[in-house]
Amino acid sequence: MTVPPTATQRIAETIRPAMLQGLQNADLGGAAGTQHINAWADWIAEAVFHTAVQPLAVERDAFADRVDTLSEVAKRHKANYLDAVQDVQRLNSRVAELEAELAELRATPDEPPTD
Q1: Own/partner pairs for 29-38, CB < 8 Å, 24+ apart?
Q2: Mind listing the pLDDT tens digit for each residue in 51-77?
């Protein structure tokens, strides 16, 4: 099993061929050299951005979306739980009322039916 390249290796593999070809026999002195070096620095920055920064930003955004979704689900579950607790309390109160009513009915003597 091959080990995937690190971010540094991927960046170097992206930059190295262009650097070797673009800088061979280049005169890097003076104003023209400064312009050439600045252009390469801009190219390297863009290569690093597209190779490392942008994928991380995409991954971060996807993770944030998952966290937002899970947070919304958790909020709904909490609200549903609170509703269920209230329902249980209401039902317990109603059961107590019905048990009291039943006990009262059992305590009263049976009255003979009147014709």
Answers
A1: none
A2: 888 988 999 999 999 999 999 999 999
Q: Per the structure block, which two tokens stand in for 84?
A: 């269920």
Tell me the two tokens of residue 94: 């109603």
Q: What is the pLDDT of residues 13-25, one digit of tens each?
A: 888 887 777 777 7
**Tokens matching residue 60:** 């971060």
Quote the tokens at residue 39. 């252009």
Alpha helix (H) residue ranges in the chain: 7-23, 30-48, 54-107
- 51, 11 Cβ separation under 8 angstroms: yes
| Nearest-5° Cα angle at 56, 53 to 61 | 125
Whole-number Å distance between alpha carbons of 15 and 47: 7
Spell out the residues 6+ positions from residue 92 whose beta carbon is closer than 8 angstroms to its own. Answer: none
CA distances from 113 to 4, 46, 61, 102, 110 (A): 91, 97, 77, 20, 9
